[in-house]
Amino acid sequence: MTSPTRAAAAIVAVTHAVPTGQDQDALWSDFFAARYDDDPRAARLWRAAGVRRRHGVVDPRELDVSAWGTGARMERFVTDAVPLGKEATSAALSQAGLAATDVGLFAVASCTGYATPGLDIMLARDLAMAADVQRLGIGHMGCYAAVPGVGAACDFVVARGRPAVLLCCELTSLHVQPAGAGGPLTRANLDQLTAHSLFADAAAAVVLRPDSAGLQVVDVAAMTDPATADLMTWDVTDTGFRMGLSPRVPDVLARHVVPMVGELLARHGIGIDDVGYWAVHPGGPRILDVVADRLGLADGALDCAAGVLRDYGNCSSATVLMVLETLMQQGIGPGAWIVMLAFGPGLTLYAALLRHTA
């Protein structure tokens, strides 16, 4: 096995922030069940999501935003995303031992809300970052956005020799769809039931520094299958953003995950058995099962991913960073290889190869 040259950018901090907690079973019994006529099949699908608890800036039992227009939802996005994003970013900078003025690039990813001036400008202002901080907005890429975001931040750190911060802030609770998306369980409304059962809110921030100990970013890879683009969609409508999610998605991932990950690892002279830790985006229980099965991972390899899904739900782009954070908290051995893997519209697979260095 060959060793890569020492990378010039390393992840030194990952933190997250979440709004008010909500019990998954209570959300079903107190709100969503009536939308699906108390259909027992719908209840089974809800429970099969693998989520026990989630967090949301909006609790539909207290404020039903399903009839709101997109404009009102975007206004509420700014109201809640700014303090949540500030909390996550401040914690990450503190963990990294940096001041806000040390940041050379501030990248912000979200597919659940938009504003101009954007979150990057508002948060750079509220965090008192330098006036010349460079900013990057990453919009509507979906659940995999954190990985190309890490790649872009890494490139900046390598090129400029300055720290970079990536914030992923997703407020999916603002996109509960109108009651017409419920009713008897049919193919037409199954996508919405799946989305409502899985998705939740969170912000996650990651700090990268030049020539530092930590999780060095060795490589980033992507693979998109445009022939399957219609299997996962996130459409902007007059009543918020609406998810389209085919049950065929895991089958497409099953076809591509081994060659995509294998090629990434082969570029560095290693194989799947050399990877000690897997930070996989938990798009749902079946996604995790497919990844573990196809890659031949040991029992328990994706426990952190399953735990994040159970305790937080699918928080879109923030989720894979929360999985990585959990792995770091549990401890990653010196010299260990880590693969960060996420999926989203396209259909797209994105992976980052990391290595822990002291």
Care to describe what's here?
This protein has 358 residues and is α+β, with helices and mostly antiparallel strands. The chain folds into two domains: 13-210, Thiolase/Chalcone synthase (Peroxisomal Thiolase, Chain A, domain 1), CATH 3.40.47; 213-357, 3-Layer(aba) Sandwich (Peroxisomal Thiolase, Chain A, domain 1), CATH 3.40.47.10. 37% of the residues lie in helices and 26% in strands. It contains ten helices and 13 strands. It has helices spanning 24-35, 40-47, 70-96, 119-126, 146-160, 187-198, 249-266, 285-295, 303-312, 319-330, and strands at 9-17, 21-23, 53-55, 105-110, 134-139, 164-171, 201-210, 214-224, 232-237, 240-245, 275-280, 337-344, 348-357. A nine-stranded mixed sheet has the order 5-4-6-7-1-8-13-12-11, sandwiched between helices. Strands 2-3 form a two-stranded antiparallel ribbon. A two-stranded antiparallel ribbon has the order 9-10. Helix 2 packs parallel to helix 6, helix 7 (249-266) crosses helix 8 and helix 9 packs across helix 10. The model is unreliable at 1-7 (pLDDT under 50).
Could you estimate the helical fraction of the residues in percent?
25-40%
Q: How does the helix and strand content classify structurally?
A: alpha+beta
CATH class of the largest domain: Alpha Beta
Which residue ranges are poorly predicted, with pLDDT under 50 across at least 5 consecutive positions? Answer: 1-7
Largest sheet: 9 strands, mixed
Number of domains: 2
Radius of gyration: 20 Å
**What count of helical segments does DSSP give?**
10
